[in-house]
Structures are given as structure tokens and as C-alpha cells.
Design a protein that fits this description.
Strand content: 25-35%
Helix content: 25-40%
Amino acid sequence: MRNPWRQSDSPWRGRGVARGAIVGCALGGLMLGWVAGVVAQPPLPPPTTLPAPPAVDHRSPVPADAPHKPARERFAIPNPDRNLFTAIEDFKPVASEADNALEYLAWCEFLLHARQFTAAELEEAGLRSLYAIDLIKPLRGVYRQQLIRFDGRLTSLRRLEAPQFLTDVPEVYEARFVPLGESPLTPVAIVFFDLPEAWAALRRHNFREWMPADAWIQAAGYYFKTMTVPGPNGDIFVPLLAGKSITPLAHEPVAPGSDPTKIDKNKKIFSFIRDKVKIANRPQLNDFTSPWEEAAAYDRVLLHAARFSAEELEKYAQTGVRYADLFLDSSAAGYRLDLIKFEGRLISLRRFETGPEVQAAGITHYYEGWLIPADEYGGYPLCIVFTEPLEGLQPTGRVNQWVTFAGYSFKKLRYESAEIDPENPERRLDKYAPLLIGKRPIARRDPSQTSPFTWGAFLNTSVVFAVVLIAAGGGLAWWYRRGDRQAKAAVNHARNRNPFETPVSPSADWQS
């Protein structure tokens, strides 16, 4: 039986081929038409490219910096951790190249680094929060290589041969000065390149020959080391700076602003003041083990107050500050080193010797007094310390004088009172009192007195008045008796006269 679906046998075989050709042609035409249409269309625009997001802006729109304040990084000595600087030895002269080549090269590098700046730039950028004693005690290592500025009193200068390492510099100069508010026992030395014309006469002196000077200066340089040098009464310690020059000043430096008595609270040493403790004994300058910071701060405030008169301190002092403001822990620290004026009764006064540093500044004694402020209870006194005696009062203990006093609030002092400790009868009770440091109390009239005259003055006045009355009474009695005798003589003369004689003037008879 034949398969009806075989193409060869199918009646649709020839027709299918024809239809397939027709369909293929149609599909080919459609494809060619589509391609032609695509080619004929205008080209598509390129895809839109979005802008890249901006980088993060790390700049502050309003920088919180000070005007014209140079960046300290610009003045820093490069690579401060090099072994070169570990060879620096304190309490010796600057080493020669033969004795200590590394220290010698370190000193030359300090000088070369300072040389590239102007003196004004170094003075503006220099650290101002240090006293000279900070560069003597063990903390000095923290400040090595630091750029430091001092204002002070120039005492002497000299010429020095420049190190051979500095081939283009024939000489350098050294100045010794006492920083403002410091002791003459703690001077500072600075070596520099440019000699101001004010001291041009130094060029006529031999190398290493000191020329005396007396002027106020500004000086800024890099702290290199502390040397031991001969002093008037033994060796003293002198911090050494490397700088560009020194700047003469027309007058003694004063605090910026309208208050010349203001003390710089930013000095590092004042951060060591501690409340509710006694002031530690003052160690010697060569004592590097005992606590020294607070005692040194105490001496610096004493020296600062001594620069002004008692009247000047009262002029610029705050008024209206209460005892409680300096006693309460919550507010006492806020008044630290403020100049404050109190009025009240001075009840105790004693005198003590100052330490060597203060004595070197010409202040041999200080006075400690206890002052009961006006409108305060007698058991709550202030401790006042000053350097000028109060005229008419002997510093032997108990006194009774109404005064005003302006002083710098130093701390809340712990002291041993006269009261017996109830828990331990063998010892006295510790108490606390605000401590103020100034120049001198000023005696005032006691407001509790109803009359400006004292009882002694009243007695003296009464005696004088009585003597005057007695003298006046005696004089009047003598005058009246003399007149009475004259009148009686005239009456007797008139009674005995012959009425028939020529009249004679009575006065002529009295005068005979």
C-alpha cells in the first residue's frame, strides 16, 4: 500500500516548492526593506554623559585662626628625633668639635636654622608661657628645640668667634639678660647673628670680652641647653638660646590692654598651684628632686607685685568680690591670679626672710598678715602676703589696724590655726583661708570710731585746753588787779589834794 504522505507521491509536491520560493522571496524583501529603512534613518545622538561628582571639600568656610599668626611647623627644627640631638649635655659649656662632635654639630644646626628667619618672625612665633626656671628644673627636656621668647633686662653682651662649620660668618654675639618677672639668679643667654646699632660699640671690644649694658629687650631663640656658669655667690644655671637678633625696647614691657598690672595666667608654672595644701618649702635651684613648682610660682607672683606701688594695685584691682567667692571650691579657681581689693581689720602681722632668688632681686623680707574683711565673721580671715612694711605697725604678732589691700588671688591655703583639734587635743586644728599676694596694705580710718580723735588725743587736747584756761585766768586777774591799784591811787591823790592849789594831771603823777 502506498504512503499518501510521501513527497514524491504527494500531489502537492510541485506546488509546495513554488510556494516555498515565494515565501522566501517575500521574507528576503521584507528584510531588505527593514535594513534599507534603518540605513535611511538619521543616526541616533550619542548617550548623554553625566558630570563626575565633585571631590569632598576639606576646607573650612570660616577658619577659626588668629590673624597673622605663623604656623609653628614652619619654624620647627626638622627631624628632631635624630641621634645628633641626644648628645647634648646640660650644665656644661657648648662642646667643641674635639670634645663632643655631635653636640658641636647640633649647635651649628641650631644656629643655621635660626639664621633663615628674621628676629621679628621668631619673636612673633616664640612660646611665651615659660619662666627661665622652667628651663633649669627637670622639665627642661620637654622644651629642648622649642622656639621660646622672653622679654627682659639686658645686662651684658660679648663677641664670639663663629664655629668653623659656619664658613661664611666671621663672628656671632652673645647677650645675657634677666627675663621680666624673674630673679637675677636665673638669667638667660642668647647667641645671635645681627647686632643692633644700639650696641655697635661692642665691635670695638675683643672677642669674649663682656660689655655691660642696661636696657629692655625682646629675644627669641631655640632652646639648646642649660649651662653652669660662675655667679656672684657661686655657680648659677643659664639657659642658652640660638636666635637671629635681639630687639631693643623703649620702656619696660607691660601687659597688653589697659591694665599694666595684669599677670599672665598662661605661664606654665601657674598650672601647678594646688588648693587646700600648704605651700611647700622653697628648694634650692640645684635641688632637682624636691617639689619646686608651686613655691616658684609663689615667688614669681611676689616679684610681679613688687613692680608696682600699693596705690597702683588698688587702682586696677577688682572690687565687690566676697570672701566666699575665694573660699568656695566652685568659684575660687575662677579668680586665680586676679587682682582683688579688700577692706577690713588687720589683726596679725609677722615678718619673714625671702628665699635666695627673691633676695637677689633686692627683696630681703616679706610680711604675712591676717585680715578680717569688712562685714565678715572674726573666724574667717584672709591671709595676705606683701613685701613693703606698713608704717607704724611692728610685725610682732597682734595688731589692730583698719586697712585696704589689693593682692593677686593665689590659692586656698591650708594653715594651722590656734584652735585645738577636738579629736586630738595634742595638735591644733587645720583650717583654710584665701591667700592674696600684693605690695602693701594702706592704713585707713577705722569706721567703728565715732570721732576721728582717739582717747589719747582727747586727753592731750583736754590738758592743753585746761592749761590755756588757767593761763588766761591768771592774766585777766593780774590785769584787773593792776587797774584796781591805779584807780585807788587816783582816788587817794584827789582826796589829799589842797583845793586851792593848781590842778595837776593824775597821769603825770603816776608816771613819776
